[in-house]
From TrEMBL:
Keywords, sorted A to Z: Membrane, Transmembrane, Transmembrane helix
Protein name: Uncharacterized protein
Residue ranges crossing the lipid bilayer per the database entry: 6-26, 69-90, 97-122, 128-148
Source superkingdom: Bacteria
Keyword hit for Membrane: yes
Amino acid sequence: MIEFGNLLIPAAVLLPNLLYAFWPAANVPKLTDSPRSLLYKIVEGAGRAGVMITPIFSAAPQFNLYETFFLSGMIVFLLLYYAGWARYLAGGREWSLLFLPMGGLPVPMAVAPVLFFISASLFLHSPLLLISSLILGAGHIPASLHMYRQIGGDRKK
């Protein structure tokens, strides 16, 4: 059965990315690609496709205590992600703000959506979404850490 209402899950993460399309980052540095960063991008792309598609193949949640717990996790991680976008906009759209730690969390703009999708997979009881989330994390988090290091973020503490 297809649950189109579950498309709200990836939409919640994708919609803030439109901000970047309308208000692109300032001071984007020249970065170097490596074979490893290309691999991260490929893995990230596969995970991204999975987390966008698999929710529609998951059943609607029943909202028992189990689902409520993971829905709460989804909300917390989504709010953290939105806080990162707010910091980006309030900080003059500075590119480095997309990668700098927030509240002690490294690359929060990469970690928060991955944790959001992992929580969503548990909320929907979806092993496919969980696998897609882990694949996304295996590419997105290292790719973001790679960019963070290239901008000297590990020296900005």
